[in-house]
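testing teh design pipeline on a random one, pls ignore if ur not involved
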């Protein structure tokens, strides 16, 4: 057999044809009489909430809630090294390895 000649019909091609028919039977056919909605028919999606990165880059305006949260974070007391270590040991690690607390 040369590269230009097709392979002879055999069991493999029958199996492939059967699998294609089974797959085609499982795919729902679109009914031409049914009107399918277009993107124009849909309401516009609301934009996602602005992130801090968007605000810092000047791509969005901060919301009042975001400004309140930032003010609360700025006013919060800093945690000591001991408190950070205690929280890390209390939480454990994602991989449950006691040698690597996070």
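output:
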């Amino acid at each position: 057999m040369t590269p230009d000649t097709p392979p002879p019909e055999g069991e493999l091609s029958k199996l492939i044809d059967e699998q294609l028919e089974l797959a085609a039977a499982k795919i729902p056919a679109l009914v031409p009489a049914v009107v399918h909605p277009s993107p124009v028919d849909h309401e516009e999606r609301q934009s996602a909430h602005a992130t801090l990165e968007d605000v810092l880059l000047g791509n969005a305006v901060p919301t009042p809630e975001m400004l309140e949260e930032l003010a609360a974070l700025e006013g919060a007391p800093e945690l000591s090294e001991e408190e950070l270590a205690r929280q890390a040991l209390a939480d454990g690690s994602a991989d449950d390895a006691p040698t690597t607390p996070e």
